[in-house]
């Protein structure tokens, strides 16, 4: 990833870093405005306006995914997995904005290392 970041312009690099650190959805990063960041506390909070997302139909989504080797949602998955490993499923669920833990389980892979620790 460091090589890829070095090839990006400053704006796109910042967008990738924000998504990777927060697990935001790609459209949330693209639509992010300063008004959506609550900076009143020690930890800044993202407060989206929740516009209706522009959805792709199945054929459009498949064509797009085929044309790209890498998808921004991989950053969301990676963030969800790291948060789950460090703080647990509930923390990942809250950070990713999921109402159901079953949705978070799709994004945040299980931590095999934790299972090994439990087995010991």
Could you walk me through the main structural features you see in this protein, from its secondary elements to its overall organization?
With 120 residues, this protein is mainly alpha-helical. The protein has one domain (2-119). The chain has eight helices and two strands, in the order H-H-H-E-E-H-H-H-H-H. It has helices at 2-7, 10-22, 26-31, 58-67, 73-87, 89-96, 101-107, 112-119; strands spanning 37-38, 45-46. Strands 1-2 form a two-stranded antiparallel ribbon. Strand 1 and strand 2 form a beta hairpin. Helix 2 runs parallel beside helix 5, helix 5 (73-87) runs antiparallel to helix 6 and helix 6 (89-96) crosses helix 7. The longest helix has 15 residues, at 73-87. The mean pLDDT is 78.
Provide the domain count: 1
How many DSSP H or I helices? Answer: 8
Q: What percentage of the residues does DSSP assign to strands (E)?
A: under 5%
Provide the structure class: mainly alpha
> How far from one another are the termini?
34 Å
Any idea what the shape is? Answer: globular
Radius of gyration: 16 Å
User: Using DSSP, what is the number of strands?
Assistant: 2
Please, what is the average pLDDT? 78
Q: Which secondary structure elements does this structure contain, and how are they paired or packed?
A:
Layout lengths: L1 H6 L2 H13 L3 H6 L5 E2 L6 E2 L11 H10 L5 H15 L1 H8 L4 H7 L4 H8 L1
Helix pairs in contact: 2-5, 5-6, 6-7
